[in-house]
Structures
1.
Amino acid sequence: MKWLKRGAIVLVAVCVLAFAVLATWEPHFASAATPPATRVYKAEIIRDKFGVPHIYGKTDADAAFGVAMAHSQDDFFTLQDVIAMSRGRYGAIAGEDGAKVDYVYHLIDARGTAEREYPKLPADTRELFEAYAAGLNHYAQQHPGEVKLANLFPVSGMDVAAGFALRQPFFFGLDSVIGPLVSGDDLRREHGPDMPGFPRPPLESAPPAEAAPTAAKQAHNLVLPLGEDAEHLGSNAFAVAPEKSGGPTTLISNSHQPLRGGVAWYELVVESGEGWHFAGANFPGSPFPFLGHNETLGWTNTVNTPDMIDIYQLELDETGMRYRLDGEWRDLESRWVTLPVKVGPVVVPIRREVLRSVHGPVIRNDKGAFAVRYGGIGRLEQLDAYYRLNKAKSFAEWEGQIARLAIPSTNFIYADAAGNIAYVYNAAIPARPEGAKADWRSVLPGNRSDLIWNGAVDYAALPKITNPASGWLYNSNNAPFTAAGAGSDLAPDAFAPIMGIELKQTNRSWRAYKLLSAAAVLDRKALEAIKYDTGYEREGYVARLFDALDKLPAEGELAEARDLLASWDFNADGKGKADAIALLIIRDFMSADYGNKPFPDVAEKLAAARDHLMTHFGRLDPPMGELLRLRQGGLDLPLDGGSDTLRASTTWDVDDDGRLSLKHGDSFIQWVEWQPGKPVFSRSVQPFGSASTRPDSPHYNDQMRLFVEHKLKPVHFWRDDVLANASKTVTVTNAR
């Protein structure tokens, strides 16, 4: 029995040792970055009555240091997640979901892109990123108790740049390709029946290829979008010229992003002694705003979905590690990476192989090996382009930066103090050779080098409109061919189908186009009615849904639900008896339409909505405001708007009480006006507050009532204005 007792002791010791190793290996394995020697930075942070930071620095770099410090004061929790993603360590924080992001980080070589391209950026741009990293490091050093992950700090400007390289392709849908390829599912990348050309077929119709002898699904289920699902992306943007507004040039930014997390907006104003003065919003991990305005001009963005991605099926040899190209065999680049996966109190190391061909990253599944190539692959110039856009003083300067196509995608709506308005369908669309005999909408043969394009189409080839006769421009994630009204819109046949420009409309687009076209004057009152419109047009998926509902044979309780929905007035304003049941049903049909998924079963969705309402409310027709809520820190407020209305309440979490807690939709709203002979004036609002992860802050939820009541607060752009409305002023520096 002694040997048994000794064996048990040894087993316990081994288990303790294994636990200790799993609990401590990751920080040592992923040692902290060694940032370059840091200069001394100093910034002044003045917060207005809503806690919005106004950041002043002698130099642009000083201001960028202040941006990192202010954002850390408000949301260091989320910033750490973003930094962990930018270093391939998110799984050590978020477990399996984080490991999915880390796999993509390695797959698309985000770090390698940063290491190759970051040193090529202009010195002042790199200095901006180093200063921002210094701000993050300084805050982490001052607040060690808030740091989630050992050795996450210090970070360098290159680490921050790697985060940009990771996230940029997901705004045009790379996740919708990588996910199905990894899992071996069918691709649903078709742009719908209204797209020119032909949709990509499912992978089953791709030509057969020799299967690799290793596990085909080596990274099964290790893909995660770095934001919301593509079918839930949305935004509205409006620009109105003085002759149409009756006074000011007006720019309305109405981005729809998740209300929390790594791609949620953070509002700020920056100003430096080097001429950088900008009010707008950024995402965690950025030293500059991505949208907003300076003294003379401004812009905002909406997601566009051109065909930016090509897929190639590789022909492998019997080893599974070589692929044929132009009749010759080439070696696949292979490297093994370690993904940290937090499981309870320990972090488990998971090894995965990452493959690459000359086309781009390679994914193997049961159907073969597939390479992916996408617009902007391997580029990082957007870090410089956004910085220059912030400092542009004229339309010519601004357009000069857009024309670089350094920013891979997103529509831009522009306005300025001179009365100019413009729309640019910005996209680094691949310069596919038109003479090649290939179906670019299908899975391409990977054995032809002539199909491996380089670079993007010329800026001159993109859709764009400047100062239309209508006096207005808009985009609501719709085709660029409805943007300015009859007589001012572009013709689809003027653009090559090979570019893959979408032709789809959203309900928001149908509504905006109708309302803008009908308005004689687009003054502030008229624009407010359009921005906060909650109506639906019986078009597209909405028409298809209600046509099916009209034909639906139903009896008993389902018939009652059908009749209630059929009586709906197509307005999600919270006033009608059918608003709640319509809200519950429409989202899934919108999602299917946006994501090119099969049309849902109307009876099934109707029954689910009926059951939800009866279970939680005991009736089919509760007021919609009792169902749809904005919730944070003890505040629980009713909302209006639907999943695809101009007042957007897009997606939500279903809470235990059956209420829908908004998580994605109208987020940062900014309204900018340039009156002739007067300084720029702007207003804004966010759903919660400037410190949305700090429950003890007075700015945790202090904008919620404004948000639900369709109200805006002033943006204190000018220094004397912010000083007159200051609630707190601090000076931050990393000087010892």
Note: Confidence is low (pLDDT under 50) at residues 189-231.
2.
Amino acid sequence: MTILAIISLLFAGGILAWWGERHLRGSSQWISLLAIAGATILLLRYWGLATADMTAAPAGLWWDSLQLSWIPRFGISFFLALDGLGFLLILLTLLMGLFGLIVTWREVSFRRGFFYFNYLWTLAGVVGVFTAMDLFLFFFFWEVMLIPMLLLIAIWGYEQRIFAAIKFFIFTQASSLLMLMAIVGLVYVHFENTGVVTFNYRDLLAAQFSPQTGYWLMLGFFVAFVVKLPAVPVHTWLPDAHTQAPTAGSILLAAILLKTGAYGLLRFTLPLFPQASAAFAPMAMTIGAIGVVYGAVLAFAQRDMKRLVAYSSVSHMGFVLLGLYALNTVAIQGAVMQMLAHGVSTAALFALVGALQHRLHTRDMELMGDLWSQVPKLAAIALFFAVASLGLPGLGNFIAEFMVLLGTFDSNRTIAVVAAIGLVGAAMYALQMMQRAFFGERRGPPPEAGKAQALADLNLRETAALLFLAVALVLLGLRPQPVFDISAPAVAGSIQPLQGAPINSSQAAPPKLSRQVAQSKGD
């Protein structure tokens, strides 16, 4: 019942925060803090499984599960399950939820109760997405996380928030309906084969269909997930949504919601449609490599700092798509690491951009310049996360991108070389951001905040929250093996159908990094 308790606590916390703010001003923040902290404590009950030796565990073994009858006439059940992959992503979700709440503690000035209601319901929907193993329930949580995020952008966003919210809704809702059609089609095909109507993930893994049918059903899932990822050319909603969203909303989008698309590809698309996924892999890898380079080029061309970070997400998530469809253990493990490292580093960058906008009332780097001497703590921390974003060795982003490229090189050397160019682009836009905002000369009139008084540097609360993320990136870079150990059985279970051979206990064991590199040669 722990999984259900986590989701229920977040849903109930959102309702209580909305109600509490109407009776006691300022209580919604503390209620939200307690709800997310309580959910994190509940999740950490699984820490013993995360650190246990899973050598003898079969691939795809659930750590915990809950299955209740919901709509039996249509084979729909309330089926929640957790494994290592889900644990890592839910831990990222809750920690980034805490970070976003703490770092923007004083930024919400109106309708705070309703803001934190939507904030917590977005987190609850994401946790549901990472644990739902009934496809109808998965779609339900997929929609639950989208609507509150839409409201966060539309109500508390910036000058063009309505346009950005509508664009976000059209892209995500259209792709969601396409996924729903694919889900219903998969269930119907399974019904034709067995005479049983079910939305259960484990049952649908055994569905039999023709290659052509599988290809079209796979595309329905693929398009829905790459829109959320996002991948080129269906990425255009992301820069507008990120730029216009409030800082807390940008953190949720970058650190958490984008990962639901990658999770869907790994959990559902690859195992449900192995033959179609293998046939489509060269095209998917090409899209990923184009996204890596294209996102870096567009990020380099931006004047708006928030828009620059948004386009950098397109580039970084291209590495995730590339790694997933390289279809070997090393690349997929690198993609999982990229989800975590990108979530941490980009959340910090959006928090820093939000802090600058709050102080300067602008995101235009041409109106900044020479900020290093005025806000040294903010500038130093921004430099750390900028070099983390470009893939500095010793940090989690470097491990992730190195493994993705290493695994991709075994699958397709040309695509790996093209994607490696994106690393050069990352260095260019990250260092240009630091030069223009913190070291270079201001090219326009000074912001209003700088005319009357000196800029305030990061306070203790903001500094502590950002340093926590910096330590997390260092730990991911210097000791990545625990992440690989935790996610290894889930990764093995996802690629088992693609390899066309059963995975024995020795292959399902959490492989050490050196063993993964060796195994990728065989993959």
Note: Residues 501-523 have pLDDT under 50 and may be disordered.
3.
Amino acid sequence: MAVTPPGSPEATQGLRRRVFDPIICENDDDTHLAASGVEGRFFASGRDYESAFVNHKYTEKEKEELQKYDSLDYLPPWSDAYQAWLRQQPKRLDWDRWVMMGLIGFSVGFLGFLLHQFIDLISETKWDVATDLLEKGLGVAWIFSIGYSLIFLLPGVALVVWYRPSAAGSGLPELIGFLNGTIIRHIFNIRTMFVKFVSCVFSVGSGMPVGPEGPMIHLGGLIGAGLSQFKSDSLGIKPDYFKRFRNSEDRRNFISAGAAAGVASAFGAPVGGLLFSMEEVSSFWNMKLSWQTFFCCMVATITTDLFNSAFSAFRYQGYFGMFRAESNIMFQVDSTLTTNILAFIPSAILGCMGGLLGALFTFLNLKIARARRVLLSKIANPSLKKVMRCLEPCLILVIMVTLSTLLPAAFQCTKFQCYETYKGQQQITAEGSPECATATLGDNIPPRTEDTVSRYTCSPGVYFTGNDVTTTNKTYNEVATLLFVTGERAIKHLFSRGTHNEFDIGSLMTVLVFYYFLACWTAGTSMSSGLVVPMLLIGGLYGRIIGQAMVNWFGVNSQNNPNEVYWSWIDPGAFALIGAASFFGGVSRLTMSLTVIMMEITNDISFLLPLMTAIMFAKWVGDYFTHPLYHALLELKCIPFLDSEPVVYMDGSHLLNLELFRASDVMTRDVNKLNPIVSVRALCELLLHTQHGGFPVCVPPAAGTQEESVYFGLVNRLEILMLLQYPDVFIDTPENQQTENKSGAKLRLDYQKVHIDRLTNASEVYATLEKYLDREDMKDKSLDLTPYINRSCLAIPDTFSLHRTYIIFRTLGLRHLPVVNERNQIVGVITRKDLMGFKLEEKLNGKAVNTLEHLNDGDKTTLETSA
């Protein structure tokens, strides 16, 4: 390893970046990544067009970015200091943990209520006024819509760009990376929470093709992190309540519960929130956490529904505590249909379409993100670069508002329609047919047009009110019904049942093309936003197209015709629901949680099996082309991530069986070892010249023997740096460096200060280390590390199975895994970066080739496993 001279700018920056300020590849500085080979390989398909079963290809610069991240150790160091601190804590009870889960659930539920109410207030005001202005002309409505939207969008974007870049996007990749074991800067800061909330309200309310659900999940994790620690470094608040939860393991569990509560509040889906956190967000789980998270999700959903009912009773006609389905279920389905075995055929087709379009969405999103980095890297002025980041969402907004306001004018108005029977029969409109004009689902009247469609500039018509009133047909605009409204209202129209010919295929296709590419472009811009609403809308559009095509081919069923009951499952709204789930699954590759969420947000169980079919096909097809979107964004942001199961190929073709390799094949050698008592100067030199996060401690052999030092435990870098800030803990260097009484060493610093208070000022600590190297009185000073040695740090023999090494490391959430030989002497250390897929391929490919050369053809299959 190259040595960086102490005091150099490189040493200062390396110390600050590595130890005190673990980074995220933030949106305000991507120049280093743009210069990493991305620009030259922008159109190379191997960068983003790669199956989920192969490892991502990182450039050399990106590998350097990976190395800058520090990892979490979810198991507290079992040392003398930790045990002494543990004895001082209150008796371990479970009731306070349940109380904390309830507090998190209530807080997330109330925040979700506020988020949706503010968004609805802004967006409904915009569309109501714009609708009234249509009577004065399209130009007036267009100018108002753009001005009104920019008033809200600009502050939301500016807060992210100038104040807190870590609040951009949905926050899900960063949340997943953190819960996988990687420290990511600022994602659980109270300032991030404020910016996230405000930016999400403004961006969604302004009419951008985004949704609030992704940010709501991040906000739930933020609340889980903040409430469980019951302190704030930004506000300088640090009370003693719940201080026993101030450790990485409990913090991780509460963040997982908060994220699940965010899903529960955003969708009104408590079971879906639990499964989402288990399936996608969290890497570590147990049954006890399942019960507690279930309780947290339940409290969050009840809180949101309760405040919604109170607000509805206050603002509209209603009663406090009455949970009305149309208010608390996002996309309430008014009627259910009988499922037919034939429905599985179009469901499978929709699943394949969802996988293809979802993979394309991921591919294009990554390409746009890389292009954005390349273009911004060419701007030398940082302020100008931030201005450009603000202008990009504004440009998208202008295009979106223009399409929403002016595109419907290119389409003719459509009459309200009611269909009496099967194809070949004449359709009956409202004129001259009072039964059709007043019919609703449930009557013996055929499907009809919804009353809530957008009139736009079309003729309002006259309702049938009696024999004395001449009735005329109302008309509406199909494209305006999907674009001149909020995204959630458009999805409700697509999911509506019994509206067989409410939308024409041409209108649906036009909206699909424009909205697809705008949503893909918007994802990744510098604002807080989510993708759930766009994914549901896009999937609902092509699902409705398939459903409408089936109606055109097979005709419209009539409830009056018993012969056509067999075909009653052909409903465009039902296939819009299946299409929405398929695209959601094709982008995210979720399965269990997605199925439950779709059931909970529609209250429709009749199409469960076709829905599951579409989701499974979407996952299978999507995995063949790209990684899941959130995992792909982890790779784009250079955040280290360990998947549940390692996948390693030899020469890109043969899947290797890791059970046939050893831990020694991937470990990092030439480890820096420490004695239990070590001089202060040696520690300063070590910390300034290396960036390792932990150091094995070895007991030196007895004087006069030829034995080597034996592994004793591990001490991490943070502990040493904290101890070096307090000169009163130093001791005079003894003649014999051995520690005769390992368990009776004096505790020289409280565990609370080392592991909970942590370091806050990198520059001061660096300056202190530099001073120690120059001070003469430090030549004879040493530091006794014995009280802080983690004696329960797992260690494995160098002959240990590599596959089982990976499972142990990831399952326990380790940060360092020392490797010892048969004499219990340190020979290497395994870290998170050593076990990443691309790193395993680099280290194992040569060994696998050498192994295969000594095997005959019949034995090669024992080393290779077919993909």
Note: Residues 95-133 form the longest helix (39 residues).
4.
Amino acid sequence: MCGISGLFDTQGQRDFDHALASRINNIQAHRGPDEDDLHFEPGLALGHRRLSVIDLATGQQPLFNQDGSVGIVFNGEIYNFQELVPELRALGHVFRTRSDTEVIVKAWEAWGPACVHRLRGMFAFALWDRRQQTLFLARDRMGVKPMHYAWLPDGTFIFGSELKVVTAHPAFAREIDPLAVEDYFALGYVPDPRCIYRNAFKLPAAHTLTLRRGDAKPAQPVPYWDVRFTNDSRMSQADTEAELRERIRESVRLRLISDVPLGAFLSGGVDSSAVVATMAGLSEKPVQTCAIGFDDPRFNESAYAQQVADRYHTDHRLEIVKSEDFDLIDTLARLYDEPYADSSAIPTYRVCEMARKHVTVALSGDGGDESLGGYRRYRMHLGEERVRSRLPHGVRRPVFGALGQVYPKADWAPRMFRAKTTFQAMAMNSVQAYHHSMSHLRTDQRLRLFSSSFQRSLGGYHSIEVFHHHARQAQTDDPLALIQYLDYKTWLVGDINTKVDRASMAHSLEVREPLMDHQLIEWLATLPSDLKIHDGQGKYVFKKAFEPLLPNDILYRPKMGFSVPLASWLRGPLAQRMRDSVLSPRMLASGYFNAQTLQTLVEQHLGGHHDHSTPLWMLIMFDAFLRQAEQRPTS
């Protein structure tokens, strides 16, 4: 796991300043504290920060082939690299290292851009082919590893693992994109390919970008893979359960390759427990497991994690986090580089901090909910879909639309009793309703929050366009498959993977996600949806498959999630910080917000009349971003 960076002259061969290239590379030193190196040639600078995990002696980067014509900077892991080596040797390629990095170089020489189809893993890399005067960038299929880039006014192309690499260049103009602000206050993050700044981009998951020196037009990302939900498997349930266990076993086995200490996160939930149970069956030594507990019992799952640890005799470590662990606001703003509002980033940061004391690599259970139907919102959406399918839109829209307008807002109530939200969703089509469900602030709330001048700057843009774009590519009519696909393209990449990547790399910890293996996901997409959600039970076949390996109260207890007590924080110890942040001169002068709405949100929440913790946290994190953006990052 590493940090990569680079500069490429798209039109000529000017020399890049060595000090500048070194500075922007070292801004992400936390991603790779073990080694760093730079490569320069006319019109090109490549930078690398290394976290040594595989081939500690000879895996340094930038790495070149024997004649120096093809070089690479690479972040991630290729789990099938050992399988590719004999095939490439048979084609005449000679290896000087034992690293997966060199396998990518040889794969490029053998197969060119099609090499990405042969790679199984998490990766973001930039490969330079001098003979073809081509810079080739690629990102893994599920977007586990990040890649940011921009074109500077003088024709220079700049890229890096984190956005701070791009923004550190003195020629980059930090002009905030209004559309990204709309996306953020809808979804809680800025979805790919957009960044918070107008002229910066994220390379989308499962895409490549090919730049050839002298091309007149900027290159555009090209997709190389997509998941297709066929839901057409005819396997029996018993065979499906056995196959699922075996496929997860294979995925976990591939992710156990490491030359440094390796362990796992163990939250006590179904996904991480299944991963640990599988690891225990593959390891002769006790698995090292790490868990975070909270001193607030409403958020504490540590007893369940201990059950799994005891059953599999893991080397288990637990740390208790105080419920008032909110001193990370500015730290998170620095890590994420753009507004990011998932408050579970706080415990994620803490569990990564703790794990790094004992291991360099940790396996997680991320991705299981999206692939196997684990979220409660999936079950609720399917219930709404049954009603939508029985009533024409021409009937639903006026009836439920009117009910949604007059019914009182009840954010304090459990989701199933928030009839206003349900009525609003029932008046919409499937994609609109799912966007409504996934929005931190719904359309009417954003309209009240934003100033009239800012609304005009959006030019009619609405964040629903992100979902519509992906829905057009989904190629499925299955209601569950459609929203799983939307989550793969938005929530999983923009929220979950972003959260884990930045939180783990802040501590130079590599996290591997066996439940996001693309071959596993392709197979899961063939399963009928009623094996994922059955009689109101989410992850149905997954839980059945792991009944022999995990206790029932792990498999069938209500999902708790990795949450923090935001509402009480913002009425108690964070109250003054919240008021100072939301009503700061910086926020009021930004031009984005209706000042009266900001005041109302603060006063109503502090008065206990409404729970506005979600919009207030989003505003706090936006203010923290603005404060960070006022300063140029330094190494």
Note: Residues 566-629 form one domain.
